[in-house]
């Protein structure tokens, strides 16, 4: 018994078929160049769409953080009127007496 893997049959796809290979004299398989170019274009399209989606999410996060910061500034501005928060206590006591 041998532990060697059986030899695989040759691939019959057009890009691996030496009979259909187009070579223009530069020693480079032009079919592979075409398929590599198509693959590169496909990857570029996918990556571009991911980057656009990420940029949109980042912009939405930035807007949300700006709103949160503005709201916190407004809320802390209301409490930091110099009365030490006593106005809040006066408001609570006025609710109890109503």
Automatic annotation (TrEMBL):
InterPro entries: Snapin. GO terms for biological process: intracellular protein transport. Residues 59-81 have a biased composition (Polar residues). One of its GO terms (cellular component) is BLOC-1 complex. Residues 20-37 have a biased composition (Low complexity). Residues 1-37, 56-98 are annotated as: Disordered. This is Uncharacterized protein. The lineage of its organism: Eukaryota, Viridiplantae, Streptophyta, Embryophyta, Tracheophyta. The gene is LOC102584377.
